TrEMBL record:
The keyword Plastid does not apply. Pfam families: BaxI_1. It comes from the Bacteria. It comes from Paeniglutamicibacter gangotriensis Lz1y. The keyword Membrane applies. The chain crosses the membrane at residues 85-103, 110-130, 136-156, 168-191, 203-223, 244-266. Keywords: Membrane, Transmembrane, Transmembrane helix. This is Membrane protein.
Length: 270
């Protein structure tokens, strides 16, 4: 599950890398012997170096890396759908790898891709479970997830949905409350204090919490977009595109699970 304002983008390492790149223009400073006027003229006649040539992160990098991670999620989901017994393994390993990647100083493409694969196994098993109960629910959840993502991206690009300091503070307060409630609900379910598939997250209360979670996830996406934009603008190192892809993948997985839960509650009341 993604925690808002993705821990990937809020990590000390990501901020330091971005600030350092912004301070140096994304390139290191070197000292050389004075050049002749002809050499200077030839240098200035050269076309400007692209972000790729200077080793800086680009939107293309982020898109490509995100496509890789989401592709691995789909592959893992196919495995989890076919072998639902692996769902618990995927959930545990995915959680561990998610925490490792979130707090790792340098992004590890291998660990990020492994995270995507194991989370996919978990999602495949979970989706298959609900699909057996409510046919068609998995496709509905996938379409709804990418619809929310697309609408959020369009609103962000248009400038109508932006992160503000006040909204971000409210977001983190809401995330803390959501986290405490979810933990309490999990403990009560595990101890048998409350019954039901979702515990306290059933009925109208469950729908209300689910809608709140989806709204939190959309704001988390806005924070992700904002941090990616700042990283590109300030010339963050190209390797940070993996961190950006990981952050977006975490948020999309969280969004999908919340939408799947809402649909299951609605279908269960039919």
């Amino acid at each position: 599950m993604a925690l808002g304002g993705n821990p990937v983008f809020n990590s000390k390492n990501y901020r330091e890398q971005t600030r350092a790149a912004g301070a140096t223009g994304g390139a290191s400073t070197t000292y050389a012997q004075p050049m002749s006027s002809q050499a200077l003229q030839d240098m200035y006649s050269q076309p400007s170096a692209s972000p790729q040539q200077t080793g800086r992160m680009t939107y293309g990098d982020v898109i490509n890396k995100t496509m890789v991670t989401l592709g691995l999620v789909l592959i893992g989901a196919a495995i989890g759908w076919t072998l639902p017994g692996l769902m618990l393994v995927g959930a545990i390993v995915g959680l561990v790898l998610g925490l490792v990647n979130a707090f790792k100083r340098q992004p590890s493409p291998v660990l990020i891709m492994l995270y995507a694969g194991f989370e996919g196994i978990f999602l495949g098993g979970l989706s298959g479970f609900f699909e057996n109960m409510y046919p068609g629910i998995a496709v509905q959840a996938v379409l709804a997830t990418f619809s929310v993502f697309a609408v959020t991206l369009v609103l962000y690009r248009s400038g109508k949905y932006r992160a503000t300091p006040k909204m971000t503070r409210m977001f983190f307060i809401a995330m803390i409350g959501y986290g405490v409630f979810s933990l309490l609900n999990f403990v009560l379910m595990m101890t048998g204090t409350i019954d039901g598939m979702f515990g306290m997250r059933s009925g109208l209360l469950g729908l209300g919490i689910g809608v709140l979670a989806v709204l939190l996830a959309t704001y988390a996406l806005v924070l992700d977009f904002t941090n990616i934009t700042e990283g590109v603008r300030q010339g963050a190192p190209a390797k940070m595109a993996w961190s950006a892809a990981f952050g977006l993948t975490v948020t999309l997985i969280w969004l999908y699970v919340e939408i799947l839960r809402i649909l299951a509650i609605l279908r269960g009341d039919d």
